[in-house]
Amino acid sequence: MALMSITYYSQVMDLDLSVQVLYPDKGRVDNPDDTDIPVLYLLHGMGGRDTTWLRLTSLERLVRKTNLIVVMPDTHNGWYVNTQYGYPYFDALAIEMPDVLKRFFPNMTDKREKTFIAGLSMGGYGAMRLALATNCFSHVASLSGALSFKGFDPRKESLGSPAYWTGTFGEITDWESPENPHSLINLAKKADKTTKMYIWCGEQDFLLPANNFAAQAFKELGYEVDYQTAPGRHEWYYWDKQLEVVLSWLPIDFQLEERLS
């Protein structure tokens, strides 16, 4: 894969944003002149950035023979929402970034059925939010995603100050309420039920109750949800292993390098 690091001016944010892009190499894929290449947006978690998936997983090795564009944006700790402090991360990713990338990569698909999104932890939440709010993605995957705040209050878990959470989401009176700003359920009620979901969470992960709650809620709303749990914590060791599962789950010709039997 060709690796491209792009810095561009975001009019929506009024600042420079960075994005890493893996692009299929001619000579390694079967159809290098494809004019409708599938795309996967891959979102980082809290404390991460656009290079984190590249640095801490086998991503580049896994997709090196697959006709797939992988886009890894940098959205700081903004939770992929239009924050209360004035940085509209959601608009920057959902509206502006696809148009920016299309200018750089005219062969990138603009078809919903070939456009996918995935993320981990905060990025799992962001992937679900973008998929449900835009109807631009046919498949969405969440690894250890903060899919609700069922069972814990992040303000009490040393995950940022109260001012940080208020600045991101606004005042919150009831973190357990399905009406709170973090809830994806209301978005899911209005979204296209053909969106396919893959959700994974480790059994020792503090976000397991949140994932159990969200996966069941999505199923009850009529979504096709592949929900998996296994022994694991909130760590990259498990997300790296799950990345191959996600790539195999997507409707692409995933060309993993052959292994000796």
TrEMBL record:
Q: Which Gene3D superfamilies match?
A: alpha/beta hydrolase
Q: Pfam families recorded for this chain?
A: Esterase
The record's section on InterPro entries has: AB_hydrolase_fold (IPR029058), Esterase-like (IPR000801), Mycobacterial_A85_antigen (IPR050583)
Q: Which GO terms describe its molecular function?
A: acyltransferase activity, transferring groups other than amino-acyl groups
Q: Which PANTHER family match?
A: DIACYLGLYCEROL ACYLTRANSFERASE_MYCOLYLTRANSFERASE AG85A, ENTEROCHELIN ESTERASE-RELATED
The protein, known as: Acetylesterase
